[in-house]
Queue: 4 jobs
Job 1
Amino acid sequence: MPAFADIIVSPIQSGVLLITLNRPQARNALRTQLLSELADALDQAASDEAVRAVVLSGGPSVFAAGADIKEMAELDMVGTLTDPRQAFRNRIDRFPKPLLAAVNGFALGGGCELAMQADIIIAGDNARFGQPEINLGIIPGAGGTQRLIRAVGKSLAMKLVLSGEMLDAHAALAAGLVAEITLPELTIERALQLAKVIAAKPPLAVRLAKEALLKAFETSLESGLNLERKAYNLLAATEDRREGIAAFMEKRKPTFTGR
Amino acid sequence: MSYNTIEFGIADGVATLTLNRPTSLNSFNTEMFEEIRAALKQVKDDPAVRCLLLTGTGRGFCAGQDLSDRSVAPSEQLPDLGASVENNYNPLIRAIKGLQIPVVCAVNGVAAGAGASLVLACDLVFAARSASFVQAFCRLGLIPDSGSTWHLPRLVGHARAMGLALLGDKLSAEQAEQWGLIWKCVDDDKLMEEAGGMARHLATQPTFGLAMIKRAINASYTNTLDQQLDLERDCMRLGGRSEDYREGVAAFMEKRKPVFKGR
């Protein structure tokens, strides 16, 4: 594994890989190098059979306060059009395994967008989400207008994006942006624990479930149901399904192999 | 840093913040808000501070808003009291409630309006026998602010909260103790001894755990039992990992006095 500077990749534990954004001095501002490293780390995790789920954290006090403004200021229109960060974001999007975000403190702008690229957000009760781009004369540029509205609905998404105001953890929970809130000291631990639960599930079923759920945002109900049925049928051919059902009948714990 | 409207000092792990505008019964003006804000930031940022003691000089604790302060003076343009609450009072109450250390209040005299509200935001309140509490707002066409409408019914129940807030009558320190509005009423000349002693005692206790107790009890007002049970589990998990817990158990086993560090 190549050495990373902007992120820390912890050893795999019980199938779970923890990736920590590591620019605390810059409140984890998402400069190009960081996103590049994150995309690389996730690509590796995607092809590593030992990894069943990934937790993405910003450490104990901040998730990510946004893009690197200095870096951003240097880009003109040609620069933004050829900005490599978009490609890294796309690679993060395509990560096929469960991705959990453990959010403490600020998740703003690009940081909020990164959290929303995760499948599940676990937040400390000190977490604050927001898309303050409007204050800089720009708009969210990494999915903020698209993912936020899908997560919290029109009215609240409009309020956040147009006013730049922040959403606290309790409000984010009520709005459905996050799955759970916990004490900030336990956010990463809780995310890892949930990731381990997921990592112990049959990986093919987990993968197809994630795929089918994400498709719901992109297709008509009919094609979505169609895809769900196809994925469901496909799983009928797996050893893990046989094992799951047999274990249930025999009242024992299943052992899944990922086949 | 030197202050004009408050006194502030740190000793024996206790930060003492004394409201100090005795000629106006320590009422709030803009400068006092700024100075309290600065002092509370220092309290929050200094890990050596493990208890806050809040009191006032002179014959009053705090008479609430200084009505002669321009920010709320009735003038040709109607004042926006909402802005004053939003910018000054609410941040003050949030700052006090959010402190991760016990907050002891020594009410040395009358606490009226937002002055009474400030008292209710503290964790352990001692009041001098001559002190009193007045929810003065109803006499001006306003409502108890700075958290009073939240704290009052929780502390004394619906009926008494309504009576206090709608009538604005003076409540004596003794009655306040009987009603459960405050922790303890003490003789005037014993106030600082008792409250100060309590603050110094708390500063030697496992304050990391005490902060979690505050957190849990404050959260209970909005949590369901299930949420609260989960919160207790999480706090116990953190408490069990604290240095203070280890020290507490070790000291018990070794039959010695524990030395807690608040971690």
Job 2
Amino acid sequence: MNSRATSILLFVIAAALVSVVALVLLARGGAKPGDTARANVSNVGESQVIEISAKGGFSPRDVTAKAGTATTLKIKTSSTFDCSSSLTIPKLGYQTNLPPSGETVVDVPPQKPGSTLTGLCSMGMYSFTIQFE
Amino acid sequence: MTAAGIETYTFHVNGMHCRACVLLSESELAEHPRVVSAKSSLRTRSVEIRGDFGDRPPEDIAEELSTFLSEHSLSTTVHKRQVDWDEFGVAVPIAISCAAVFVLLQEIGVVNLVSGDTVTYGMAFLVGITASLSTCMAIVGGLVLSISATFARLGDRTKPQTLFHIGRIASFLVLGGVIGLLGSAFRLNSTGTFVLSLTVALFMLALGVNLLGVFRWSNPLQPSMPRFVSKRALGTTNLTHAFTPALVGGATFFLPCGFTQAMQFYAVSTGSLVAGALTMFFFALGTLPALALLSFTSLAVRTKTKQGVFFKTAGLLVILFAVFNAVNSLAAIGVIEPVFNW
């Protein structure tokens, strides 16, 4: 077998696969199928509540919230057994194991305008970012 | 046979990395009826053979002697093996394709296949299967691939791999029972997780680079014993061969893999020895098919050219996984912004 031909053929296959992945990533446009347009930030009196679901990653991944306001994070899980159930928020020094199904509340002190808060799974493969404005 | 027929041949020994290999190759080759003496050298990775082979060409002799060594899977070839850059022509696209499939699997969302709130043993098994196809693959799978390929390169094809998996499943059963009984898990804090992930990533990086076969250095998995010790205890070397993979397999219980942690968390909540043990056992069993496939792929490649390609592909994939893990663990402690997000 001509090794050069094999090599070229394999490179073509690899290029095709990479393009498929690139297309899928582009089509997603940073949003997961589970993401909805509904505002997940609601105001309760003086504070705001941000709802984030955790299963196979966090959704939504990008949240914009008000700065200088006490914030409550509500992390919802439903049969979550993947890494997103092991949540860390490095900036707050927060780390927990979320229950497989349920709701976990995290209190976030008021944040400075322009600052961000990132939550990740303990291995760092899934994350969400809250932008405070 | 007359003394006049005895000639000296020098052959290169592929895959000779440890001092024990030197002794084994010497004693194995000496068993050949036509070999008068054999002297191996680890430094030059060659063996000097004195024997009567008539007028047979060296290639022919090398091939015949190789079959004698196959048990210890050292092989003798005439030419010193050069870095075969052509093999990268095949290995690189295969590695890229595998990485693309891995990303695709995450995008499709294998994770979302799991539903239901109660953790039955069947469910634990299903989570195990999902885990082995998901991001955990990067850390546990990467480790499995790097270790199995390294052992396969040293010539041990089935035993270390099998022991690794037995060690893994046994430790999940036993430690699952322990955490169920104690009602608490030895959970690492984020610094601990970071240190462990980074160590594993560096370890994988070293093995991956080694698998590429571009640089020559002794194998990190093979502790180099003084020759006089190993000469006395050839049996002991086999013992190390057996225990290391089993221990590493068992230690995967502590690897920072989200799925494992979630399952351990559940095992703790059962507060029962049996339930904890069985949950973790079925979870480990679920991860077995994919991980076993990874570690036994090396069995399918028999010819020398295919092996070269296989080890290079494995090396590239392991390096990719190592970098992926290192970047993720840096993101997890907040040093850098998250790079990957699935």
Job 3
Amino acid sequence: MSARRIFVRPARFSAIAPYIWMLLFFLVPFGFVAKISLSQTAIAQPPYTPVFDLGAGGATLKEAFATLSLDNFRLLVSDNLYVFSYLRSLVVALTATAILLLIGYPIAYGMARLPKPWQAVVMMLVIVPFWTSFLIRIYAWINILQHDGLLNQILLALHLVSQPVVWLSTDTAMYLGIVYSYLPFMILPLYATLAKMEPALEEAASDLGASPLHVFWLVTFPLSLPGVGAGVLLCFIPIVGEFVIPDLLAGSNSLMIGQTLWLEFFTNKDWPVASATAVVLLVLLLAPLLLYERMQRRQLEAR
Amino acid sequence: MAEKAQAIDAQLEAARPEAEAAAPVTPEPQAVRADMPLLRIEGVAKKFGAFQAVNGVSVDIAASEFFALLGPSGCGKTTLLRMLAGFETPDEGRILLGGKDIAHVLPHERPVNMMFQSYALFPHLNVADNVAFGLRRAGMTRADIFTRVAEMVALVKLEGLEKRKPDQLSGGQRQRVALARALARRPQVLLLDEPLAALDKKLRESTQWELMELQRRLGTTFIIVTHDQEEAMTVAGRIGVMDAGRLEQVATPRELYEAPVSRRIAAFIGDINLFDGQVESREQNRLMIATRDAGVVAVAEPRNPITKTIVSVAIRPEKVKLSRRGPVSEAVNARALNRLEGVVTDVSYLGGLTTYKVKLDSGAVVRSSMANTARIDVDAYAVSQRVVAWFTCDDCLVLEQ
């Protein structure tokens, strides 16, 4: 009996540990944000009302609760600025994720087919950019893309263009920055699924008369779908909320939701609207996550 | 059981003509010359870096033959099989199938199919789709595919499991799906890479019989790779023994066991007692060989003339008889020219037979095994009993290498 306890306790703790983590570092902060999103902006410290004072007694608390409203959310749906921001974020994230998949898949596929010692080397090459600060790498891109930057110098030297091309503050530069930054997040999960795939499966397909193209479409690709799903999510979700890259590389005429949020928070000092923006963003991002989970569960059930 | 098999036969016959007419998969009856074997492997060699995996292998395999490639792991048998499937290309030599060199034909263009050791079933496809995979690639019509899949599923007795995914099947069922999938295209040659290695002993034995029956019924050429000599001897009509990339001997199971060409093969196939010695003299049709451990041994003149003087005498344990005082009757005495005296040191009762280890007076050990033909054995020998181990000159052979 006592022996059993010793073994059960740590097991139980490790089972609830993720939930404690979720509670402390996600649900509680999210509760704060959700509460602020229902408040009104105020010139005060903190810059919103009401502020719950637990020591003030029940009646005051009740009063404070009554002042909470959904006004901020109404603003989000009624003002085109926010709707366009959300839409632009989704479009940018979808486009960038598609480009990432198109570039990342062949790289991951090639990596998984290299001789084992080479795989480790290429894996290092994929990870090595992480050793430099993300911000510095984006500034390096600004350097490369600017009017008299490296890219224009090369293009001019090769006589591909007659005068410098404007790269900075364009969507092209933004997509370049996003794809560059997120590529490892697409490659790694794809590589993981492709590398553990049994080589005999592709041989069997080819033995049964499938041409190399058919082998890929009928066997390799379907079996790599879990990796595709993971890579797509790992890129899509953070790109939707991306702030730094569009801010530094894209033009300022249309904003992604991350930029709008930043503006509300730091420039307008409107914490409630910024919070509402964040809550809506989170709800939007839950949709693909839930979809992915359902897909995975269905896959598990099919087994 | 027999009725069921007949019923399947009837189904097969009924399904065959139309399916064959529609299926481009079915091998064209190629202009095979009468003197040409279905498959001719000619001086095939393959190197991986500095490692010579396969070294100058030549062998002819006839149509409808059940051929086994036998050898320890790393002997090159799997590499040879993979060259037949097209996954490796030989550095040297030719592989002629029906007279046509296929050594450099891509795997998906060969009329040869392979059953993989891991089965390599497609995990995202159910049983029926796994079996149909090769048929779809061949461009058969839906109706023909449906018929052929049903036929194949019945052939391997998996009716009712068509919709299951591979990981909903037992190991034995997966093995059958792999077999059905590889046979579905009616290959000219079916390659089997250790097809039974993943099954437990009982299932493996019953599956060996089923494989043989299937092969006889379909008349397809089967080439099986195995490291299990018992399996090779059970299923195959002929066995090629490989060692270090070379094909050492190609023979029927009986020849391989009773007349191995080298010490290595003699020791690899079954159990054997070996005595080194040198040829001392010839007496009529017998060779007298002076051995280090067993004195002078008489051996019936082997078919091959012996050219070397340093040789080994080989004798299988079941051909070594034991008795308390040596062979008594005159008739036996006349043949039993070789008598070795010693003490029993080990007795292992294995059910069907009992093996004895006898330590000879020279210090060498001779193994003898005897079938337990009676339930109560009055003749059993005990440890430390003094016995005579004897064998006739016809039962041993001389090995030169």
Job 4
Amino acid sequence: MFEKALSGSRRYWTLVFILLALVGAGFFFYLRQLSDGLSITGMGRDVSWGFYISQFTFLVGVAASAVMVVLPYYLHDFRAFGKITILGEFLAISAVSMCVLFIFVDMGQPFRIFNVFLHPSPNSMMFWDTVVLIGYLLLNLFIGWATLGAERKGVAPPAWSRPLIYISIPWAVSIHTVTAFLYAGIPGRHLWLTAIMAARFLASAFASGPALLILLCMIVRRYTRFDPGREPIQALGKIVAYAMTINVFFIALEFFTAYYSGIPSHSHSLEYLFFGLEGHGSLAPFMWTSMGLAALALTLLINPSTRHNERWLATGAAAVFFSTWLDKGLGLVVGGFIPSPFESITEYSPTVPELMISLGVWAIGFLILTLLYKITVAVREEA
Amino acid sequence: MRDKMKIFAGAAIFLAVALFPLWYVRTTGKASIVPEPKIVNAGKECVNAKEYMREYHMTMLNEWRDEVVREGRRTPIVIAGVEYQKSLSDACMKCHANKSDFCDVCHNYLGVSPTCWDCHNSPKEPKHEIR
Amino acid sequence: MKYDKNYELSRREFIRKAALLGLSVGGSKTLMEVVFGDDILAASTDENPATVRWAMVVDMTKCSRREDCSDCMAVCHRTHNVPAISNRRHEIKWIWREPFVNAFPELKEGRLRKDLYGAGFIVLCNHCDNPPCVRVCPTRATWRRQDGIVMMDMHRCIGCRYCMAACPYGSRSFNWMDPRKILDEKAINQDYPTRTKGVVEKCDFCAERIDRGMLPVCVEACKEKALVFGNLSDAGSPVSGLLAGRFAIRRKPELGTRPEVYYIV
């Protein structure tokens, strides 16, 4: 089926080449990072994780969201999702690939990455995150390829794909829970030391992933002859509405505990993020934008009349995606390091090389997505 | 398979050409360049025999690394009454004191770049004329 | 169809079997390491008291507390080839001064004894008994020795900086660039390696000296004898003696890390 990605319209090839150009630019900057070290990024001794890890954290959520289409269809026979489970699974493959790449570009000694497997450390959540992410990638690769291949041949998917699909459902939850555990078990970072970290992660994942899937379905409908249909997009809209409501509720819960308890260390990071601390507040505009977008999203998505209108639905979905991207990516990861263990403030902003490398990784992800979706659409179009 | 003979003949010629460096040196015993590492502080006995070291010095160094760093076992090795620390810089480089004339000769010949000296110190070398 | 008519393996079946073989070969090494690998959490317990438990007492009543006194830091950084980087974001430090209110932020509320407001406390890795940095390392490039020292293996570190996120004391530094570009070639201590870019480093209680029965260089260098190092498991050691008689505090003890650097204030 690979050959289906090698023939397409002029528009398709333009997209592919633009993405390849972005990948090339990112790669060029990455070579600089390999030779000069991570000093070319904006990270430092106090904020030792930055844009790369924030993108990784956000994308694990997007990857986990495939379960939101797989579960209703395979466990509850929700027929409407029949045509788009493959789109969810391929989105998961693209997202997990980006996760792995963001980890790779963040490492100081990336060529030693096999040490994680040569010297496995079950005590470390990062070890388990590597295991479950690679497992999830393989699961979706096998399931997606087998189901699409079977569809193309006009036969039922192979019997072994069923148990794998059932496994992928709790596995999807596990990848984001383990990623949350990366943060939630660290004693010294008070923004992260919350029992609801995994719950927050899952809520924002189930909001942001399906939101992106809505937009991707609309794009596929617009530019190809495959129409996912109105019903699945509406169902996804409801899922995003509920998930985003819970996500915003959880954020409010964090504020309550931080401020009502009165314990200074519990609220310092939130204070810095939203209001600024000791004259430093460079992230506040981003956090309030995130909240504004969240409010807009909830208004559009909870209200049935706007949700039923696909233009407003698309706006709401985009608002959810960017709101969660700002809050989970920038806010959560960077905010955890500010103030430092010495309660001093060192601010962080990504550098141009850092952003170019990140853009390159996003481009690789969208390239994978484009190729996989092209194959899917080609199979559907010839049927 | 009408072209069987042509395919086998082609494959045989390819293998002969591709493996030329191996079978030529094996049969005639002549290599165009033989690396000649020079030992500066000769006269002391090495921690292991030359043939063993040629093949296993990296394995031995890794074992030393794990023993010293990870297990804290720093007991020196005693060869002919002389103590050697289990250390690249404090043992090996004290005798093989000229990295360019000893270590680099074979490493460059084989095209390997070990990263040991990114961290571990090598003795200062006197400048010598370009050969 | 697994087999074609000549009873040879189909391409698909071959790839499947090859992948399984590769995975089982690779996986078995991993499994062996998990089962037989080094034990990282060998902390001492009351049922199994360690015979050696290294600790340090920082007697701030003896320390000069002055910004211009940097004997311990200078000798440590010189001995261990720690580069002096002017950009604060990239700086590497194993032992340094922090104002009391920064070293002990939970204690800064309210009214303090006057002399503490300007005091520069000596801070370093606390070599915790229950170190979160060790817990999170995905390769066990950092681990806790039986005698309490939290070690770094620069060969194994992949530079993920998870340990830096996990340390509640900010004790760890990362090599954001090649330190040899900063270090003065002539001033490098030939008896100790440098590091390379992309690995984390921190104080290791001069493990290579401890193992030879010597004291850490900072302890030896302090003119006021403010740094005391010894074996807590030995009731007769200087640290045991000091702590038995004087009140000492530790940084963030409520986090359960059980730090082994004590401060006499």
